[in-house]
Amino acid sequence: MLTILKGQPEYLSRFFQIVLASGEEVGRNEVVAQEKLETCLVPMVRGIHPVRDAVSIFRMAALIFKVRPSLIHSYTPKAGLVSMLAGWICRTPRRVHTFTGLIFPTTRGFKRLLLIFVDRLICACATHIVPEGNGVKRDLEAFKITAKSLSVIGHGNIAGVDTEYFSPLKLDVSARGERLRRELKIPDSSRVFCFVGRLNKDKGIGELVSAFIKLPSDARLILVGALDKTAPVDNKTLGEIELHPRIHLLGFLKDIRPALFIADLLVLPSYREGFPNVVLQAGAMNLPVIATNINGCNEIVEPGFNGWLVPAKNPQALNLAMQESLSMSRFDLKKMGERARARVQDRFERSDHWGRMVHFYRSLLSFDRKPVQ
């Protein structure tokens, strides 16, 4: 999460005294150097582990008791559970949790009930709840997760995008992009689709591969991201990825800009999202987006304006959208990409979001409860 929020804590520290809490030791020194802030370790584990979670809550409560903050802000589900419970125990006056996405709407049975219980518990312990986007807000209301006031900050998202950094005009990015194109032996005439994210079944990788292999021979697909064992892609799909001559699996890349530079479109066929940063990053790189009609994606992508929206878990609809994009001229596709960048600059510029965060915190600390616009 601190990778997504890179630079934001340091900026906020110009206005407030900030202490960071991280659940992982790996990378903590890098965060300290990057943000120039005190960063404390509070070990946490993924999933529900009653004993280890109780230890995490105790450790967080000890940290809160030591620091005595006026406000706590958490983002991920586990950090929210630990921080909001510990903050409630310590009676921290302002306890803020941001829901970056909800897992339970796509689950069933006991797991769904457990996840709903945890989200309700987080809300019960928080004094202020921030949905990352309007789709998340609607789900929180529809499933009666909380009766408390819900306010989206700006147009949504938790970080914004540095559109100067994510720019196709940067010479070093274009040079590395062209080098990557040569390494992958992708002809200039090919139409390149790019996926960026964890490679797991919930990202719609199976549907993406199924839709892509039916495209004409001049289409290429780049997959950027590490294999995720928590929700693994099926073996058939993995086999097709490994053997197909026009699918390029690059794995995790610290810098995704060269891959986006040589792409013509981003494709994100996820089953669920909160407010996907990669769609904003791709838009900033002048790329139209083909995405599923789910929370977050449908708050960024406007069909016909800056991309396409298709139903989730529907490879036929995904294939049709990809076919339609292939039928467009490069000029028209470029115009769509330019509109995508303009929208990101207008609504999701990082510096603007940071300013809204300062206003948000000041409004809470001054007891101004008006929604942030």
TrEMBL record:
SUPFAM superfamilies: UDP-Glycosyltransferase/glycogen phosphorylase
Protein name: Glycosyltransferase family 1 protein
Alphabetical list of InterPro entries matching this protein: Glyco_trans_1 (IPR001296), Glyco_trans_4-like_N (IPR028098)
Domain Glycosyltransferase subfamily 4-like N-terminal positions: 20-154
Domain Glycosyl transferase family as annotated: residue spans: 179-342
GO terms assigned for molecular function: glycosyltransferase activity
Gene3D superfamilies: Glycogen Phosphorylase B
